[in-house]
Specification:
The chain is of the alpha/beta class and 620 residues long. Helices cover 60% and strands 11% of the residues.
Amino acid sequence: MLANQSRVASVFAATASVLLVGACSTQATSSETTVNALWYGTQKDGSVAQGVTKVTISTAPSDQAGFTVDLSGFESANAGAYWNSAAWSAAAVATLSSATDPRDLTVKFGVQEKIDGPSAGGLLAVGVRGDLVGGSVAPNKTMTGTILPNGAIGPVGGIPAKLRAAKEAGLTTVLIPKGQSTATDPASGDKVNVIEQGRTLGLDVRETASVADATDELVGPSQKAAQADAGPIGAGLLGVVEKAAVAALADAKNTSLATSGIPSLVRMRVRVAKQVSAFTTRAQAALVADDAIKALTNASAAARLSHAWNARAAAVTKASRSGVSAAAQDIATTGAQLAGEINAQITQASQTPTQYQEQAVGLADALSWGTDALARTTVVNARIKNAGAAQSPEVLGTEAADLAESRYNADFMLKTAIAALATIGKVPVNGAENTASFLNSYGDFLAEAAEANGRYFEEIAKADGDATSAAALKQDLEVIAAGRARWDEVKSASSGPELAVKLSQAISRYIDSTVVIASYGAVAAATDNGATSRIDILDGEALRSQQLLAGATTALEARIMAAGGLDSSYTRWSDQWGSGLTAAAAAEASADQVELEGLIYQWFANMQAAITVALNKATK
């Protein structure tokens, strides 16, 4: 479920709940709150600017059909592109985390001065969530932090400067992202313990992990959702998973790794063979231990890696012997054919019957195996068309491997997910038209949030003059473009199998666009000259902390689902798949990209559960 393959997003979190921690379903009522947004930036003369800007947030029933985010208050003040992006993401996450019915809801933002920068995303989400649950942010409190798809608070820069701004504005409490108690002061370049700095300034500085936790701190405790024992994952689903694990293991064992005399391939094959062997060994041990999910995670990793290696070796060998043009043409032919095949597979899978609410939402998650495979294939095809003949044999090998992984995900994992989906469900769909209306609204606003993210990233990419990041930026821009083009193909759907494809694409596009921005790590300052600074968020330890948070969130979501009579088996399978992939990658010292992929599977699980709970409450 990962279209972005360029860099690694990392985030700061702890074992706390994220989505649904206070998710008693709400219906929109008119409400307004004002929050104090902290900002900082380095100006052209090298000095550090800092300050506080008041932002108004209101929620109200809309006289239009569907979810609406009114940014007119930002546009009139010439607020920057990221504020539009952050506003949409904040509205989306707040709606999910409060289990609010998004139909006929308007969220409006306003600001009185020019401002930009992503670090107020978490605060905006708390402000929206406070409105939705009937509260408002205390005027003497604020926070800084970006917002991630499952409601986690992500890292920011310039915290010491922001604390000085808070002190100057008369604020008393500032929440910061979990894991950032030590930060670099942009004025001095020194590392600062910001908790201690806060005490010196007379500020109460606390860490927070999620929008839900931050809402409790800034707005006040809200009514918590009921919880119940979720019980074990369904035996039917585990049976499907075990069968798939056995098949994947046999595939891995029967797929011989290609050999080559090309030096680069010789060296790489040794590493690949070692990884395949380790994955296979762990899969066998997991089957013996009756751990079907772990077995499938490792067996499919071995099989997918084997097929990707063989495609890579063939492409590099062809390019070295027959020329890159010939190899590029082969990849182009394969990619075009594969795109058509995956499209057909998505269409067929989308027609899976959804008798239960868990299946109605879970189908979008299952289809994401195909959605992502198609997105990756589309990006590869575009790169080959535009510059394939100018690439090195090694780069063409990577493109061929990417196509092979996409083929495996669509051929094997999509089918496995659909088979697993057929085994779950306890709460019947209550009105097909009502359910479709609800899911359509979620799809539309998640896609709007993704589009806002994409527009922001396109702007910062244009402004980036760093030659070392040019290639990665280009790859990320291709991800944004592919997601936009695919959305244009599916956005008109409003019911039936086409709606499942639409919702799948919306969730995938939203997560991918968030990852692109998070992995870039640009923070725009709120100064008249638009000065910017950058922070490094390529932190593997923080990434793994976020994975622990996502797992804890899934456990909580499962208990909330159980209290509503829902089956959480599919959600927990998705989460365990992601955490298992992370564990397998860590055991093999694989690239952080694989660990990020595992986290994204967990994000899908979190979002799927949140939408299911909201649907259950909205259609009772």
